[in-house]
Amino acid sequence: MTKFNLAAIFVVLTLAGCIHAQYRNFNKELRDYFPTQVGKSNFTLENARDLLYKKCKKVLLNGTTPPEDQYEKIERAAHQLIDCANNIVNITVVMEEIEAASPTGDLDVVLAKYCRKMPLAKQCLAEFNDQLMMCLTPSERSQNAEMMRIVDSLLNFACHQNGEAIALFIAEDGPKCLEDNKDNIAKCMNATFSAYLPAEMPSELPEFVMGPKQCIDMQDFEKCLIRHMETCTEATPAGLIEALFRYVRKETVCQAEIDKTKAATQHSKNSSPMQTMPMMPWSATIFLLLFILQ
User: Fold this and answer.
1) Measured between alpha carbons, how far apart are the two ends of the chain, in Å?
2) What string of H, E and C letters represents the secondary structure of 210-262?
């Protein structure tokens, strides 16, 4: 369980940094991990708002709630979520506190302080999600429930025993391993996910669901990422990230889809490609959120 805890904690801290809007430099550094299309895109906050409004209008076309009202509720909830995150964790301060506490062996004190705020983080996220749900399709709502369950589990694992596992993660140079492989990670994402980023702004948002093709692409990215991380001095970081991917696969439809694909490949190398409707993988959803919150 410990290996997964470490990976989960690092992911939580990274996401906290993403949504901390006032730290533009951190966001800029984070973008170095993403496909080159992200940095070159002309996609703006107004574009994101327009696409989200169109989605609400389409989903709520025959509903009792006016799309304009629901969109405003989502926008207010998004601002509240950002304010909540800023009040819970300041990524710069967290890193300074960790650096100061490491030599004295007081990391557990620092981590326990932030883990005590975890219930508030869950509440803020749930309140935002409740508003977002109103503008999701039935299939998206089904996967949204699954995704929220996974996020809740990740947060619980992150603060298992007040987050003591992160001390080991730092000791094993996990963050340094990721930083040293920043360029390689970007190449992995380019090779796997660049096709999902359109050259022109889409006319509407695709469904935020995970299909068979996206599952296979995520596994391809995992293999590429792990291959580079295994070159680090310590073997632990690669094992932690691999455990995280394995957990996500098992908690979603992906493991079953991957198993079916492997079985089909064994029977016939010339099997027809999987048919799937165009969908936006979770990674592309994260890119969209980065644009909105930049």
Assistant:
1) 34
2) CCHHHHHHHHHHHHHHHHHHCCCCCCHHHHHHHHHHHHHHHHCCHHHHHHHHH
d(CA 129, CA 142): 13
179: CB partners within 8 A, 6+ apart: none
Cβ atoms 284, 193 nearer than 8 A: yes
Compute the distance between CA of residue 173 and CA of residue 10 in angstroms, rounded to an integer.
12
Distances in Å between the Cα of 281 and the Cα atoms of 24, 39, 133, 217 are 25, 19, 18, 9
The residue among 286, 208, 221 whose CA lies nearest residue 249 is 221
Give how far the C-alpha of residue 148 lies from the chain's centroid of Cα atoms, to the nearest Å: 12
The pTM of the full predicted model, rounded to 2 decimals, is 0.66
- Give the Cα separation of 272 and 56 in Å (integer): 36
Query: ∠ CA 47-121-131 to the nearest 5 degrees?
Result: 45
Q: Is 137 left (phi over 0), alpha (psi -120 to 50) or beta?
A: beta
The sign of the torsion formed by the CA atoms of 6, 10, 11, 13 equals positive
pLDDT digits (tens, 9 = 90+) for 158-215: 787 877 666 666 778 888 898 999 999 989 988 887 776 665 666 666 666 667 888 8
Question: How far, CA to CA in Å, does 180 sit from each of 30, 32, 145, 211?
Answer: 13, 12, 35, 32
Tokens coding 201: 């702004």
- Nearest by Cα to 13 from 153, 154, 160: 154
